[in-house]
């Protein structure tokens, strides 16, 4: 076809028997031996009856110029070596199983006069959407390698496929499939016995549905849009723990009223309670503050249950009963009443010098009812190895409670938090404190601008900023994040920081595990 000719409309719809008259002359595959294979009217009728949504036709200005045919099969039938005849039951399609989990492509064709218009890509995109809609695990099919006969004397099939991947060789079928995100699962022999061009080889090609969910007895599927809240906390004097919790309860109630799934508090948000110990030296005062930690944790658990929200409690000092070490820790208080503790791994020089704090030794991602999360306390966000460990454990949202006194200290946390969002392809939520505590040593002033950061790709804000609080003002910050966008980014992003790591050159080791 002359591609300069004006095309007014391109349409994809389900194949109907009325289309057969236009298509039947194109229903063939020509191989080197000149044999033609036709789809009969009875076969097309059978496919339309058993799986109408799997059969599509593409129209150019009302003329049927291509089609795609498919069935649903069990993964066990196609995961290993098989032939086209086996998977289609000699083209009777009795292998079609509506309750199967694989969308298997049995034909895709575009009339030669209409090639070069990316019509086949449109049909593949339709198949991908159908696979997601039907919650099928993958799309699979046997793909020819029609240029292989030109290289068969010098290259084995595996070597040929590798060179096609590396763009050293062009194959009209395999190159197209790879560009459409299909990967070669295995090499099959005698898939199509008459395919002399491919030397009787074929590639088992597979595209995985990243949204696939295995059948479950649960009635509620995890939601993809998560609402997060961050508390930009104003430091002020409190007469005691009860008054402190009046303010905490106010913020939890305010955030939960917007149906948030998470709320994040800052690092050392309870520091005002040290005012009554200001006559003691700094190390003694912080240990007095640590005496409140378990009671604060228990009250947060009650708030998580009563307000139906997952609370990340920022951080507070905690004395380990086994080692006697003073740690900086926080708690994930789930709305189902369970909780887990996270630890600051790297304490700052000032925390060690003034308070005698020690670093913790546990890094893990936490499961919740709506997302897998990680927590890094302030300074820990400046060490990329920690977030990489969490990302390898499936983290989707990273929470960073922080406390910084100056703007340059805040900038370190902020810039590193944005880097963590990009390199780990996750959302990052940061929350800090503002104001001053003139009656508490070593906690004089605070600077903060809480924020939510995203990766930088087309589906996200161009600057990677989902939401920002007003600097140095007490407030709550609430925004939604979409986990489905992360799934798509991992597989189809402009860059893929997690997948493209050169693990043959470097790795991060955590315990005995290489990440």
Automatic annotation (TrEMBL):
Domain named CN hydrolase: residues: 226-483
Keyword Aminoacyl-tRNA synthetase: no
Coiled coil residues, start to end: none
Alphabetical list of InterPro entries matching this protein: Acyl_CoA_acyltransferase, C-N_Hydrolase, C-N_Hydrolase_sf, GNAT_dom
Key words of the record: Acyltransferase, Lipoprotein, Transferase
Domain N-acetyltransferase: 10-206
Keyword Transferase tagged: yes
Any one GO molecular function term: acyltransferase activity, transferring groups other than amino-acyl groups
Name by which UniProt lists this protein: Nitrilase/cyanide hydratase and apolipoprotein N-acyltransferase
């Amino acid at each position: 076809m002359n591609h300069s000719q004006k095309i007014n409309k391109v349409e994809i719809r389900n194949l109907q028997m009325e289309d057969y008259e236009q298509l039947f002359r194109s229903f063939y595959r020509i191989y080197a031996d000149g044999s033609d294979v036709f789809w009969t009217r009875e076969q097309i009728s059978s496919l339309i009856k058993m799986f109408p949504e799997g059969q599509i036709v593409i129209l150019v200005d009302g003329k049927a110029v291509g089609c795609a045919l498919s069935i649903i099969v069990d993964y066990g039938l196609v995961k290993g070596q098989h032939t086209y005849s086996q998977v289609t039951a000699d083209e009777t399609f009795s292998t079609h199983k509506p309750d199967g989990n694989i969308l298997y492509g049995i034909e895709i064709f575009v009339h030669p006069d209409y090639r070069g218009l990316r019509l086949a890509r449109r049909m593949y995109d339709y198949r991908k959407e159908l696979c997601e809609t039907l919650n099928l695990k993958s799309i699979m099919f046997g793909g020819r390698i029609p240029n292989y006969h030109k290289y068969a004397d010098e290259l084995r099939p595996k070597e040929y496929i590798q060179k096609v991947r590396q763009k050293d060789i062009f194959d009209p079928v395999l190159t197209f499939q790879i560009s459409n995100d299909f990967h070669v699962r295995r090499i099959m022999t005698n898939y199509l016995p008459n395919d002399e061009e491919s030397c009787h080889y074929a590639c088992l090609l597979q595209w995985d549905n990243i949204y696939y969910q295995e059948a479950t007895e649960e009635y509620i599927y995890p939601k993809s849009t998560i609402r997060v809240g961050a508390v930009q906390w104003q430091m002020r004097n409190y007469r005691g723990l009860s008054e402190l919790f009046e303010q905490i309860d106010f913020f939890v109630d305010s955030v939960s009223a917007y149906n948030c799934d998470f709320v994040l508090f800052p690092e050392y948000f309870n520091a005002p309670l040290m005012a009554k110990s200001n006559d003691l030296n700094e190390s003694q005062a912080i240990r007095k503050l640590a005496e409140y930690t378990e009671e604060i944790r228990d009250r947060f658990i009650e708030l998580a249950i009563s307000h139906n929200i997952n609370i990340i409690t920022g951080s507070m000092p905690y004395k380990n009963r086994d080692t006697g070490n003073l740690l900086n820790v926080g708690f994930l208080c789930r709305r189902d009443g369970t909780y887990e503790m996270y630890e600051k791994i790297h304490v700052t020089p000032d925390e060690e010098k003034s308070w005698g704090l020690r670093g913790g030794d546990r890094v893990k991602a936490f499961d919740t009812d709506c997302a897998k999360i990680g927590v890094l306390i302030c300074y820990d966000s400046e060490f990329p190895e920690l977030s990489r460990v969490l990302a390898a454990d499936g983290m989707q949202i990273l929470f960073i409670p922080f406390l910084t006194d100056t703007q340059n200290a805040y900038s370190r946390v902020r810039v590193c938090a944005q880097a963590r969002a990009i390199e780990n392809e996750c959302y990052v939520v940061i929350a800090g404190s503002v104001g001053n505590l003139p009656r508490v040593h070593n906690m004089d002033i605070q600077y903060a601008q809480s924020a939510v950061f995203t990766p930088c790709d087309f589906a996200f804000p161009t600057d990677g900023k989902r939401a920002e609080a007003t600097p140095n003002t007490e407030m709550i910050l609430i925004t939604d994040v979409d986990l489905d966008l992360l799934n798509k980014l991992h597989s189809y992003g402009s860059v893929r920081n997690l997948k493209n790591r050169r693990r043959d050159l470097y790795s991060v080791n955590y315990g005995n595990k290489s990440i």
